[in-house]
Structure formats: structure tokens, C-alpha cells
Prior knowledge:
The chain is an alpha/beta fold. It has a single domain (about 10-250), classed as Vaccinia Virus protein VP39 (Rossmann fold, 3-Layer(aba) Sandwich). It has helices at about 10-20, 20-30, 35-50, 80-85, 100-105, 110-115, 150-160, 180-200, 210-215, 220-230, and strands spanning about 55, 60, 70, 90-95, 115-120, 135-140, 160-175, 235-240, 245-250. The strands form 2 sheets. Strands 5-4-3-6-7-9-8 form a 7-stranded mixed sheet, sandwiched between helices. Strands 1-2 form a two-stranded antiparallel ribbon. Strand 1 (about 55) and strand 2 (about 60) form a beta hairpin. It is globular. The N and C termini lie far apart (about 60 Å). The model has no long low-confidence stretch (mean pLDDT about 80).
Amino acid sequence: MSQDIHDPAFVAALFDRCSTRYRWWSAIASFGFVDRWRRDCVGRLIGQRNIGRIVNGEVGGKPFPAPQIVDLMSGSGEVWPHLLDAMPKARINAIDIAPAMHARAQQRLHGAPGGRISHTRADALDTELQPEYADLVVSTFGLKTLNHDQQQRLAAQIAHVLRPGGAYALIEVSEPRGRLMGPAYRAYLNRILPLIERLFLKGGRDFSMIGTYTHSFGDCTDMAQALREAGLTVSMERHFAGCATSVAGIKPVAKPAAQA
Length: 260
């Protein structure tokens, strides 16, 4: 492929084309695991939020009941039900570069939750959000579209928008390392998934890009290093034998300067 698959314009156009079928196709293609992994990601976010309350070895008071969450590369909002189940009063700023994905997400909003979710069409690498704007940052299944340099920029953005003590959690499909699981997983992504797409989605080839992106991404190891370099704590976990990996942590509270 001659075109840069990490170019923001390419990514936006790709996901715009996928927007009408993204939710059900991703669920079918992953045998339902993507939704489980989203729940796992939110669980990690809550765990890191609790860790962020520990200052000088002591746990602070109850967490703020209405945290400001930034959902980077938000897609059509599949993670929002899990966020709102865990934090019913949360406010979510959903950021995505693909306008059709935003439109699909807005169509899903009904009643009170819709009033707590705002949308920003923007590149996650350049959000123009104010420093220390967010209590929590989450991203589910957008990391694979980023190259090494872009992952470093995203890490810097997360460090920029998080308040001290704030938490983040990110998850992405990944290439497992096992001798059996690795080849089987690659064969599924590179051969079986494109075949199913051609047969059932009128010859489409957009969703088969998942295999290309996953192979390029590998796992969250580089992202973990970028987050550390941005000054955040990092804990990395593997899910289902490494078919997904996640990173989570907090923005440390700066220690008061020693007095002379």
C-alpha cells in the first residue's frame, strides 16, 4: 500500500466509510471480546482513579462524583455505557477525527446521558484542550492507527489534559506472542477476516485493515514507554493471551518544593 495508513486524513476517511457498520462488525469479528475488553479498560480506569487518591501514603476523601472524562478517538461511543454505569454523573468529552463516526455516536444519545456527553471533532494528537482539563482519560481501540511518533504525541496530550492525580486507561487489539496463538491470530486477521468481509460486505476491504494496523502496532509496549517519558505512571496488562493489551496509570501529584 503506497498511501500512509497513519495519515490522519486516511484514517478519518477509512472510519467514515466504516461508520454505519462499525459496531456490529467489530463485535462479530472479535466474537464479542471487544465489549469485554472495553469493560476491562473501564475497570482499570476506576482502579487507577483510586490509586490517584493516595497522597503521601494516605488515601484522600471520596472521589469527585461527576468527573470530567475525555474519550480520545471515541468512535461511535461504545465505551460510554460502561463509563456511565461506573460513574453515572460523569461528563464525557468525546473526541474523534471522523465526522461520520461522530454523527453515528450522536444518533445513539437518548435522554439524560446525552446531556452529559459533548462532541469535539478533532485530531486526538492536537485537541487544544486546556491544561489539567480532565479527571480521567480513556481510549479504546484507536491506538493501532498511530505510528511511533504519533504515540509519543498522544502520550504528551494525555499528560497535558490530565489534572495531577488524574487517571487514564487505554486498550488496543494486539498480536499475541505465543507459538500457537500468534500464528492462528494472524491467519484470522490477514486471511479469514478479509474473506468474510468480501463475502458479506459487498466486497469491502476497509475492515480488513484491522490486520494491517494490528501487525504495524504490535502491542502497547511502545505506548507504555511514551507515557513514561511524558511523566505518567504506567502499568501494562495483556488480555486473552495477548490478543489485546492495555496501559493505565495516573499523572503524579507534584511534591511541594522543599523550603530553604
